[in-house]
Amino acid sequence: MFKIMVLEKIGAVYIVLYKTTVKIFNDLDDNFDLTIHCKSKDDDLGIHVIPPWDVFSWKFRVNFSGTTLYFFRFSKTMLYKMLLESWKRWDSWSEDTKMSTQILGEVSLEKTTVEIYNKLDNGTLLTVHCKSKDDDLGSHDLSENQSFRWKFRINIYGTTLFYCRFTWKGGSKTFNIFDAKRDENRCPPTCIWRVRNDGVHAYHDD
């Protein structure tokens, strides 16, 4: 089996007529429908529901600068299997220029915000130090009613976890401040926490 790249000469430039095909298979367990929304900078392919064991596909040509990028969003966060057929990579017409197609998958393109307020009594200073497996957000001192916030995207596996250590005069506590399995559907787009003398209290921003 072989493939032919068809070139069309326009002036002194050759344009690739060869199309790339991307196929996304629904191979989820338990016979779930898979809802996806695929886009590029210039094209919105719309929302599609893929029944179990079915496939959604589309074709396109890589742009002249080799920066073609498609992303897709899944309706449900879960471990999943997917096959991308015909992932095409090829060199361009010179050694100096290379063209490639990049396909990215993300559970969500929207960022989640976590905000922590100091609600301790009597103007007590609160020190907050938050981390994830990959990121250390550093130590922050919050005066009464001050807040600390950050934004992030939930990873593709839905396992994003941030934990924080809170210390103040006479007390300390370590708490999982964001656990995707617990919080993804509870508090989009902002998870608000208030640290009080009796514990860490959750709120959400609609």
Characteristics:
signal, mainly beta, Self-incomp_S1, four-stranded mixed β-sheet, Immunoglobulin-like, single chain, S-protein homolog, 1 helix, 206 residues, disordered N terminus
Provide a descriptive summary of the structure in words:
The chain has 206 residues and is mainly β. Helices cover 2% and strands 53% of the residues. The protein has 2 domains: 18-83; 112-203, Immunoglobulin-like (Sandwich). The radius of gyration is 24 Å and the shape is elongated. This is S-protein homolog. It holds the Pfam family Self-incomp_S1. Its main location: secreted.
Number of helices: 1
Strand content: over 45%
Tell me the overall shape: elongated
At the fold tier of CATH, the topology name of the largest domain is: Immunoglobulin-like
Q: What's the rounded overall pLDDT mean?
A: 75
Largest sheet composition: 4 strands, mixed
CATH class identity of the largest domain: Mainly Beta
- H-E order: EEEEEEEEEEEEEEEEHEE
- Whole-Å distance between the termini? 55 Å
Integer-rounded radius of gyration: 24 Å
CATH architecture grouping of the largest domain: Sandwich
Strand order, largest beta sheet:
5-4-7-10
Give the count of structural domains: 2
Give a short summary of the structure.
The protein is mostly beta strands and 206 residues long. Helix content is 2%, strand content 53%.
Topology:
Layout (H helix, E strand, L loop, with lengths): L6 E4 L2 E4 L3 E6 L8 E7 L3 E7 L4 E6 L8 E6 L14 E3 L6 E3 L1 E5 L5 E7 L7 E7 L3 E7 L4 E6 L8 E8 L2 E9 H4 L6 E7 L2 E7 L1
Parallel strand pairs: 7-10, 11-17
Antiparallel strand pairs: 1-2, 3-6, 4-5, 4-7, 8-9, 11-14, 12-13, 12-15, 15-16, 17-18
